[in-house]
Amino acid sequence: MSKYLKGWLMPALAALMMYMVAQGGWYMWAPWAFVLTVFLSADIFLPHDLSEPPKFQNAFLLNLPLYTILPMLALLNFMVLWMVGSGDMLGFGAWVQQHLHVDLFAARERTNHWGMWAGCILGVGLMNAVGGTVAGHELTHRTGKPFDLFMGRWMLAFTCDTSFAIEHVYGHHVRVATPDDPATARRGESFYTFTVRSTIQSYVHAYQIEKARLAKLGKSVWNPFASPFLRGNLENLFMFVAAYLIAGLPGLGFWALLAFVGKQYLEITNYFEHYGLVRVPGEPVQPRHSWNSNHWGSTNVLWSLARHSHHHAEGEAPYWTLHAYPNAPMLPNGYLGMLLIALVPPLFKKFMTPALNEWDEKHASPAERKLAQQASRESGMAGLKIINAKLA
Fold first, then answer.
1. Closest to 358 measured CA to CA, from 319, 390, 327
2. d(CA 201, CA 198)
3. H or E element, residue 139
4. Which of 23, 193, 300, 352 is buried most deeply by CB count within 10 Å?
């Protein structure tokens, strides 16, 4: 049974985060600091996880932690919004005090400085992303399973990004590493430019994909019974309405910040997962078109998302079947390390320049090497080598 336990690392983090947030005050920074410390330590000090996926007999036990994330996120975010408000909606605070002996009323009183709430936004926004978006990403790839799609799209609503379920599966996985893919960062592009471009273009692409699909069926993208795009937007709207009902106007503003921060965590991940990689449009997607990572924390806490090369080679493969692909292009750091590095463009370029040079020389096909040459010239990145495109 021990091999099933890795899938529960994220729900365990979510439970611990709820306990920390319930303390209020400057403890609001504890979830973000804890995740940062544990995640980075696991990636830095533990050996890379090159293990092959074991044989599993019970898929339900592997899916259960994914499903568990949705009610845990709902409870975590409800609790935070309850603390932002001033009443005791549904008698939640009284119930917690009576049955769990945790005084949320006192925690609310202790949380009286904007700096405390900033820590809460960073920490809970991170959980909405690494919990909700990563689990939602896994589930929305299961296009033939309505329950999984339902759960996954609601998880994505915690970052106001339900359109991701459409664009990512039917757009990004088709156009990855080409100029038509908004989620592939270009060489020399900073995260701050990328996130604006990716957010807007991905949303527009999701709309276009759904509109074209439904047009073939003689249906409208604005038909809520036929359009996952519209239903997803209604789910996003529902979250804002719920925030207002729980905590009034302060809750509405707080939720907007939470959703924004959670979305930025996703976009940073998008940013470095394919940064600077190129592919000839129409050519098959190969493991070399994604940056891979076998760092222990990134692999095991994030349900093998870091085994990104295999994920793009076989998009519908469940997380527990993904292989390490040790010969794929590798990120210079684990996911959380790359997340922090990406916020400092000069530092990010310093790490990625040698990685791109290695990709051009060892992984690119001759046709891709020509595209890489052009991309390097246009990037303005010092240190990128212009390699003879005829080299094998």
1. 327
2. 5
3. helix 134-140
4. 352
pLDDT tens figures, 91-105: 999 999 999 999 999
Q: What is the pLDDT of residues 349-378, one digit of tens each?
A: 999 999 999 999 999 999 999 999 999 999
Which amino acid, one-letter code, is at 6?
Answer: K
Place of tokens 């207002």: 244
What is the token pair recorded at 59? 């898929």
Query: pTM to 2 decimals?
Result: 0.95
Stretch 253-268: mean pLDDT? 98
Ranges of each domain in the chain: 2-379
Q: Token pair of 113, please?
A: 């400085």
Rounded to the nearest 10 degrees, what angle do helices 30-45 and 114-127 cross at?
A: 50
